[in-house]
Design a protein that fits this description.
Elements lengths: L2 E8 L11 H4 L5 E5 L7 H14 L2 E5 L17 H21 L4 E4 L3 H7 L3 H14 L4 E5 L3 H8 L4 E6 L23 H14 L1 E3 L5 E3 L4 E3 L7 H14 L3 E2 L8
Parallel strand pairs: 1-2, 1-9, 1-10, 2-3, 3-4, 4-5, 5-6, 6-9
Antiparallel strand pairs: 7-8
Helix pairs in contact: 2-3, 3-5, 5-6, 7-8
Length: 256
């Protein structure tokens, strides 16, 4: 591929829980998945991140999750369809309003954490999220796991979709992400991560945790803002991709 997007999950800091360096990351990535407040962040902190995204010319995406602040949205939640759809609609509405106040606009939606992983395989919850996006703004692009159920369901619902690959997460042989409860699920070596993403950009292949290759068709690469060494990984990945002749540009600006 000649062009790839870099995205990161941001807007997740509060004074008592600082998880990432949004200012630094916004100088690297081309798309920002900004927390909508349910799993992390505060209105004032989210607004600050949105202000910085606008200043840096970074495309803004909404990052809604389960209502699970205590566990950072990374615990599975049993939730009925009406409640999940309302929760996602509420979060999208809040971020769209804040982004407008900051002089920007929301272009896409990337669910967070446990919700993201659940809808990659659960058609019912995937349909609930797709319905929420359609109800709020059917022009929003749905960003999700390459090969996951969520993108198939969203596409059938009439939404534009785009897939992403993960720089700092280990893959299972079937293309799903390795659970964070397992050793080796999160990667931290900046050089190794960058080399992995250059190989992906050039071949469409990512080495799974068992040593086999997984084929991934994706328009964006995610580096989690709360991962240890996130800035170093994002910096090195961008540098090595550009050195390999890959253009870094937002997927939402390419008609994804």
């Amino acid at each position: 591929m000649a062009t790839i997007d870099l995205n990161s999950d941001l807007g997740e800091n509060t004074p008592d829980r600082i998880v990432g360096d949004d200012a630094a990351m916004l100088g690297i990535v081309t798309s920002a998945n900004v927390s909508c407040g349910f799993h992390a962040g505060s209105p004032e902190g989210i607004r600050e991140t949105l202000d910085a995204a606008v200043r840096n010319g970074v495309v803004i995406g909404a990052h809604p999750g389960y209502r699970d602040y205590e566990n950072f949205g990374r615990t599975n939640v049993q939730i009925d369809s009406a409640t999940l759809q309302a929760h996602v609609e509420y979060q999208l509405g809040a971020l769209i309003g804040l982004a407008k106040a900051a002089g920007g606009a929301v272009s896409y939606v990337k669910p967070h954490g446990a919700l993201y992983n659940t809808i990659a395989r659960d058609e019912r919850q995937a349909a609930d999220v797709a319905a929420a996006i359609r109800a709020v703004d059917p022009n929003l692009v749905m960003l999700g796991l390459a090969g996951g159920v969520a993108l198939e369901v969203a596409s059938k619902a009439g939404l534009q979709v785009a897939a992403e690959a993960f720089a700092d997460r280990a893959y299972q042989p079937d293309g799903q992400l390795v659970s964070r409860t397992q050793e080796g699920a999160v990667l931290h070596d900046a050089s190794a991560v960058a080399e992995r993403m250059v190989r992906f950009a050039e071949t469409g292949l990512i080495r799974a945790i068992d040593g086999t290759d997984v084929r991934v068709d994706a328009a964006s690469i995610c580096v989690h803002g709360d991962s240890a060494g996130a800035i170093a990984m994002a910096t090195e990945t961008k540098r090595m991709l550009q050195d390999a002749g890959i253009t870094i540009a937002p997927f939402a600006g390419r008609g994804a």
